[in-house]
Structure formats: structure tokens, C-alpha cells
Model the fold of this input.
Amino acid sequence: MIKVNEYFSGNVKSIAVQNSDGEQTVGVMKAGEYKFSTSKKEFMFVASGQMDVKLPGESEFKSFSNHGSFVVEANQSFDVIVKEDTIYICRYE
Done:
């Protein structure tokens, strides 16, 4: 089943699918600043664009661009600054 998600007044949109690889989303973030919370472990992959991310427990932002990736454990929050519209893929565990 395919599900469409929309967050932050439509500035973040994704399409979710669950298949033999598990639950995943492909989405787009419009330039802006966002705070996300997780309910599952998230494996984020930047397909195109750039995002600066302050991961849980970190004091500084780290930059992730084309083909960069990071992991956020379940039940955590993280901050994201997107300077240009960015495409991402997220896998959940």
C-alpha cells in the first residue's frame, strides 16, 4: 500500500511504502528549518540536495549532501536545516 504524508504546512512531503525490505519513504523537504521526532529507528539517505542535521546528543550541526546518510534511534528528536529543496529516502526499523 502507498501512503502520502505531509508535514510542516506542506513543506515536507513523502510517499511511504511497505514491502519485503520493510517500511520506507521517499520525500522532499522545501528549504527551511524543521524539528523531527522518531518513533522507530530511522536510516536517512540524502538523494539530492543538502541538509544540516543536529543529531541527538550532539551540540553542532553536520552537513549531509548527495548520497550522505545518518541514523537516528527510536524515540529521539533531531533538528534539520535545509538550504535548498532536498530529496531524501528514509528506512524505518
The first strand starts at residue 2 and ends at 7. The mean pLDDT is 95.
